[in-house]
Amino acid sequence: MNLGHYLSLISRSQHELAEAFREVAAGHAADAAVFHISGQLAAQCDRHVGELKPFVERYGVEGEEPDRLHSDLFQGTREGPLGMLRDLHDLYLMAAEVDMSWTVIAQAAQGVRDRDLLAVTSQCEKETATQMKWIRAQMKETAPQTLVVASG
Predict the structure, then answer these.
(1) pTM, whole model, 2 decimals?
(2) CATH number at residue 36
């Protein structure tokens, strides 16, 4: 059974997304909304990791993890408005990876008839979708000023 691999993947991805939200909050602290909401979303990701822990332990990982199962998207914050836009873009891609993983795990949870795992995936998937909506809204707000207005 490969479910354990995906549970490990999403646990790691959620942890890294939380760290990326914290880095974006610190790197762009001048933007109060980004600072505060990124911190809240980091805590939400941390909670997801905690909720996954019993399932990671239950299903475990058999054998070695396939090569390149995990991807590295976020490499630290950048400076300035264009940097913030790129950081938000990276966050969005990371959240999209997590979102798709929730979908795949939910399907597996149905297959193994694990109602507890299905309940966790359903709740966490909704919260991840909300994270993606917030990131997208921040990008839409930031993009015109950053990409169209000439920098001095």
Answers:
(1) 0.87
(2) 1.20.1260.10
Give just the sign of the alpha carbon dihedral 102, 105, 110, 113. negative
- The CA distance from 137 to 141, in Å, is 6
Could you read off the pLDDT tens digit of each residue along the chain, which spans 152 residues? 789 989 998 998 999 999 999 999 999 988 899 999 999 999 999 999 999 999 999 998 765 554 444 456 667 777 888 888 999 999 999 999 999 999 999 999 999 999 999 999 999 999 999 999 999 999 999 888 888 875 55
Q: Could you list the residue range(s) of the whole structural domain that residue 24 is in?
A: 3-61+78-142
DSSP run (H or E) holding 77: none
Residue 29: C-alpha distances to residues 39, 80, 109 (Å): 10, 11, 39
Per the structure block, which two tokens stand in for 12?
């790691």
Q: Is residue 72 part of a domain?
A: no
Cα–Cα dist 116/97, whole Å: 22
**What is the domain count for the chain?**
1
